[in-house]
């Protein structure tokens, strides 16, 4: 299967080069491409990205879902692999992710983050939460058909599933976007959460907002999307009109 790695980026000049280098360094026997979506950056994000052999897409409508959708629409792969501009996937990331699509019914695969830049204790605690608590939560939610859990910077999605969903839910600018994606995905197939599919990620948002505050924000929006009616989740639409630069 061909894999398209999509990296949304907004003012990520500090991180984008590292993310692109990690994406390009993938040891995958199949074909893959790297797409960076500049989501209206005011810094040198686009300039830095364009210095690498990748496809650069410009999406001026703000929001992670608009950016991911623009990348998906430009992608040519059978699998869309989403990571973030502050993430560092290991060289076997897409090999591991693609290998988990053994069943046709599997429409997406996600896994945990390891936060590498906010201290050993913080990294260990959140790795445990992401590996075990979120896996159990995902299993329960999927069995109850209430939704699931995916990590936006560490998720592989079949193109056919995104087509059935009508793309990403662009009504959400950021918080709740991953939960919405998971909830919409389980309507078209099985979503796996594999604790061994790991991505190194920056804890910059926790550093900016504070650990307790941001955790509560994430939890609030997670629960808000879970209890949201299925009709509201499935009726969200997209408007594909990115301007593309190779």
Task: Note down, in words, how this protein is organized.
This protein has 10 helices and 11 strands. With 246 residues, it is an alpha/beta fold. The protein has one domain: Spore Coat Polysaccharide Biosynthesis Protein SpsA, Chain A. It has an 8-stranded mixed β-sheet with strand order 9-6-8-4-1-2-3-11, with helices on both faces. A 3-stranded mixed β-sheet has the order 5-10-7. Helix 2 links the parallel strand 2 (32-38) and strand 3. The longest helix is centred in the middle third of the chain and has 24 residues, at 120-143. It is globular. The two termini are 23 Å apart. Residues 231-246 have low confidence and may be disordered.
- The secondary structure category is alpha/beta
CATH class equals: Alpha Beta
Provide the β-strand percentage band. 15-25%
Query: Biggest β-sheet, characterized?
Result: 8 strands, mixed
Low-confidence stretches: 231-246
Structure summary:
The chain has 246 residues and is an alpha/beta fold. It is 41% helix and 19% strand. It has helices spanning 16-24, 45-49, 64-74, 93-99, 120-143, 159-165, 177-185, 204-209, 211-227, 230-235; strands at residues 3-9, 32-38, 55-58, 79-82, 87-89, 106-110, 113-115, 155-158, 190-193, 199-201, 243-245.
